[in-house]
Write a structure and sequence with these properties.
The protein is of the alpha+beta class. The protein is built from four helices and eight strands; from the N terminus they run H-E-E-E-E-E-E-E-H-H-E-H. Strands 1-2-3-6-7 form a five-stranded antiparallel sheet, with helices on both faces. The structure holds zinc ion (ZN).
Length: 183
C-alpha cells in the first residue's frame, strides 16, 4: 500500500500512448501489478479523485481506476463503486453531448467546461482478467471518457471547445458554480 506521486501537466508521460497490459501479469495475486493497482486505488482516494489513470502515476500502462461517492467537487452525482479497468476501449459514442465542469489530479486547481457524450460502450478487463462489457451513461460515461483519454495521451483541455470556460477552482466557485453547474 502506497500513495504514488501524481504526474502533472508538462510531464511527457501524460502525452504518450500507454502500453497494453499483458493479462498474464494479472494472475499472480501477490504480484507487482496487483500491488500497483492497490497503490493506484490508494492514491485516488488520498488525492480525492474520482478516477486515476496509470500514466498519471508515471506508469505507461492501460489501467484506470474509478470510484465515486459524495465527492464535494461533484455534488449530487450517482455513485460508482470502486472499479479497475485494464486495457479499456470505448466505442459507440452517443450523439447526445452534455457540458460538465471537469477537474483532473494532473491539472490540480483547474476546472474546465468539457463536452462529452452522455453514453458510451466500454470494453475492458477487470483486475482478475475477466472481460467487462457495458453501456455506461451519465456521470460514469463522463468519468470513463476522461480517464481513458489519459491512456491516449489526452487531457480534458484538449476536449474543450471554449477556453474562456477554463478557471482556477477558486474563481470557478465564485463565478461559475451556481450559474452553470454540471447538468
Ligand atoms: Zn485526469
Amino acid at each position: 500500500m502506497a500513495v504514488l506521486k501524481v504526474a502533472k501537466l508538462g510531464n511527457p508521460i501524460l502525452r504518450q500512448i500507454s502500453k497494453q497490459v499483458n493479462l498474464k501479469e494479472l494472475t499472480d495475486q501477490q504480484g507487482e501489478l496487483q500491488e500497483f493497482i492497490d497503490d493506484m486505488i490508494d492514491t485516488m482516494r488520498e488525492e480525492d479523485g474520482v478516477g486515476l489513470a496509470a500514466p498519471q502515476v508515471n506508469r505507461s500502462l492501460q489501467i484506470v481506476v474509478l470510484e465515486y461517492e459524495n465527492n464535494e467537487r461533484y455534488p449530487g452525482e450517482s455513485s460508482i463503486p470502486v472499479t479497475v479497468l485494464v486495457n479499456p476501449v470505448l466505442s459507440d459514442y452517443g450523439e447526445e453531448k452534455s457540458l460538465g465542469w471537469e477537474s483532473c489530479l494532473s491539472l490540480i486547481d483547474f476546472r474546465g467546461l468539457v463536452p462529452r457524450s452522455t453514453s458510451v460502450t466500454l470494453k475492458a478487463y477487470d483486475r482478475d482478467g475477466d472481460r467487462i462489457e457495458k453501456r455506461a451513461t451519465g456521470f460514469e460515461a463522463v468519468v470513463l471518457q476522461h480517464e481513458i483519454d489519459h491512456l491516449n495521451g489526452k487531457v480534458f483541455l484538449d476536449r474543450m471547445e471554449d477556453l474562456t470556460k477554463l478557471a482556477y477552482q477558486e474563481e470557478f466557485e465564485e463565478f461559475w458554480l451556481k450559474k452553470d453547474q454540471v447538468s
